[in-house]
């Protein structure tokens, strides 16, 4: 059974960051059948449609994207990813 997922990434507008996000798919030999990038000033929104990716793999990709420097928010299938950077977890 083929699963479809949609991911949206809000981030700083940066060609390097966009390449890193695409690289996360390349590491898994995946291609996003649909990808849109909207740039407004210093911010960009990347919307990815994922086909033939199970929920676990989609979640792992979203978590890796959230860890990229410059990424402000990631949603998968319309649900915001709750991610705390390791520094935020360290005891005070």
Considering the chains and any ligands shown, give keywords for the structure.
disordered C terminus; 36% strand; alpha+beta; 3 helices; five-stranded antiparallel β-sheet; 92 residues; globular
Largest sheet: 5 strands, antiparallel
Strand count = 5
The residue fraction in helices comes out at: 25-40%
The helix/strand series, from N terminus to C terminus, equals EHEEHEEH
Separation, N- and C-terminal Cα atoms: 46 Å
What fraction of the residues are assigned to beta strands by DSSP?
35-45%
Judged by helices, strands and strand pairing, the structural class is alpha+beta
Compute the number of helices: 3
Strand order of the largest sheet: 2-3-1-4-5
């Amino acid at each position: 059974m083929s699963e479809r997922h949609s991911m949206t990434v809000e981030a700083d507008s940066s060609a390097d960051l966009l390449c890193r996000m695409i690289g996360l798919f390349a590491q898994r030999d995946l291609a996003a059948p649909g990808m849109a990038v909207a740039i407004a000033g210093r911010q960009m929104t990347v919307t990815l449609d994922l086909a033939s990716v199970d929920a676990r793999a989609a979640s792992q990709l979203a978590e890796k994207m959230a860890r990229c420097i410059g990424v402000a928010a990631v949603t998968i299938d319309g649900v915001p990813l709750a991610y705390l950077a390791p520094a935020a977890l360290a005891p005070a």
